[in-house]
Amino acid sequence: MDPISSLFTVVVAGLLLSASPGPSMAYVLSRSVQFGHGGGLASSLGLAVGGMLHALFAALGLSIIAIQFPWLLQVIKYLGALYLTYLAYDAFKASLNFPVPESRNIDVAKPFTVKEKQNPNTHRQTYSRLFINGVLIELSNPKTIIFFLSFMPQFVPHFSATEMFFLSSLIPITAIPADLLAIFAGGLIANRVRGHAWLMQAVNLLVALVLLGIAGLVLWV
Known about the structure:
Elements: H1 3-19, H2 23-60, H3 62-68, H4 70-96, H5 114-117, H6 122-139, H7 142-150, H8 161-174, H9 176-193, H10 197-220
């Protein structure tokens, strides 16, 4: 397969992958609803870094190791589901501890707990946490793992490690349009619920259910 055809094939496959519903899209949308555009962007950047790590693994040939040891994929899957369950529990706790806002100008980018609301470094800490969560979720995303294990190896015999990394790195880049759409939609919802304590509680509870559902999806795939 010539380089131009390979480039076109990978880009189209990446766009189809990002457009299909999965843990990554659900995570960006739920975090955008919960924390606004900033939280959604931080989550999306984390997913992108996780995707780049997958690209690096593919370029180094580490994907072959995962194929030879199927149990390793199962371990990654269960760890990812466990981590998502923890995040769901964290969101559920936030829905129980949500403070009644003093004004309608409360910033939805702040975590929905009294303790974190009083922290002067709330935004930086929150976005950093969302970014790291995004990296970990993408690393354990079965849809991404299966894609890199089943689709990308066909290019290995024809390209060098550097060329493989370039091709593989296109996958997280093709996810940008879908992520931006999820961030925009989630941010609009966040602006609608701003200043309404009971709605924000409902948002946190909904996010907890979404994360729990993603955990179940990870185990099911």
